[in-house]
Amino acid sequence: MDVVVVYETHFGQTRAVALEVAEGARSAGAAVSVVTVDAASPDLVAGADLLVVGAPTHAEGMSRPRTRGWAHPQTVGTHGDVGDGVREWLHGVPASGAGQRAAAFDTRLPFAMAGGAARGVARALRAHGFALAVEPEGFVVVDIDGPLQKGELARARSWGAALVRAAAAPATP
Ligand SMILES: Cc1cc2nc3c(=O)[nH]c(=O)nc-3n(C[C@H](O)[C@H](O)[C@H](O)COP(=O)(O)O)c2cc1C
User: Fold this and answer.
1) 106 phi and psi, to 5 degrees?
2) Cα–chain-centroid distance for residue 96?
């Protein structure tokens, strides 16, 4: 199974989760590419049996140009734009081919009201025709710039392995 893990990160936490998810998927027998949104071309996505998309939670959802500016005030000013995030990248995702599966995860703060980006990512993937292999998942950071809560990297690795097993099962509508 070919798996492509696409992520956005500002402090490295979503990347750390993406790398563990990839390791977990490899341990379950998949061939895995891990790329940032900048490097995730439509061709790469089209070749994936399972597309996994990870995003940091900003303002209870996916980042926007302004929230990315807030994450990088030193470099771009508090209202500056910082490249594209998962939200913009999802607009260019090619419609799913037959049998393509997908999964979404986010990183988020440990508060019940903190929301999560993964649900919106999953909704967009479904709108592009992907069948979700599993429910959206959140991984918890202790503070805005990390680190991840104890145990989250191990949980990410297990989730990656479970994803591959779930994606190998027939899709349910
Ligand atoms: C502008 C901004 C807004 C944020 N808003 C939320 C939020 O609403 N809920 C939440 O759980 N975390 C929020 N966070 C914390 C992010 O989830 C955290 O920075 C992210 O998980 C770190 O991942 P990264 O290093 O991959 O960017 C916010 C962070 C920034 C910079």
Assistant:
1) -135, 170
2) 17
Q: What percent of the chain stands above pLDDT 70?
A: 91
| Mean pLDDT computed over every residue of the chain | 91
Q: To test ligand 1's pocket by mutation, which of 58, 78, 105 has the most ligand atoms within 8 angstroms of CB?
A: 58
Reference 10, options 104, 141, 121; nearest CA is 141
CATH of domain 2-168: 3.40.50.360
E strands, 75-162, are 101-108, 131-132, 137-140
Say if ligand 1 is within 6 A of residue 63 CB.
no
pLDDT tens-digit map of 117-145:
999 999 999 999 999 999 999 999 999 99
* Residue 26 main-chain phi, psi, to 5 deg: -65, -40
Strand segments, DSSP code E, in 37-157 are: 50-56, 101-108, 131-132, 137-140
Q: Which two tokens stand for residue 37?
A: 């949104």
Identity of residue 159: W
**CA–centroid distance, residue 11 to ligand 1 (Å):** 9
Tell me if 49 sits within 8 A of 167, measured CB to CB.
Answer: yes
pLDDT band at residue 170 under the 50/70/90 scheme? confident
Number of residues that this document lists for the chain: 173
